[in-house]
Design goal:
Radius of gyration: 13 Å
Distance between the termini: 10 Å
Structural class: mainly beta
Strand content: over 45%
Number of strands: 7
Number of helices: 1
Strand order of the largest sheet: 1-2-6-4
């Protein structure tokens, strides 16, 4: 997984690239953006898609949009959870 963030006016947009390099299905993958590595989840966040499945070898980019003010002084930290996810 790789991610990058950019500001657009009052919004912050985080682009997350997911890749499944295994021979197994990555199932029910959930993404969330936190206020720093140990911070709380940023809510509300509008995800382009979430709870996705990735076939073996599949790669996808998914974006999240949220208010810059929700981030405060922290940097966005993307967390990935799911079945068959390392």
């Amino acid at each position: 997984m790789t991610d990058r963030s950019e500001k657009r006016g009052e919004d912050e947009i985080t682009h997350v690239t997911l890749e499944n390099p295994t021979k197994n299905l990555a199932f029910f993958v959930r993404l969330k953006v936190d206020k720093g590595k140990t911070g709380e989840e940023i809510l509300p966040a509008l995800w382009q898609d979430n709870y996705v499945s990735l076939l073996p070898g599949e790669k996808r980019e998914i974006t999240a949009t949220y208010r810059v003010s929700e981030l405060g002084v922290a940097k966005p930290y993307v967390e990935v959870k799911g079945w068959n996810v390392e």
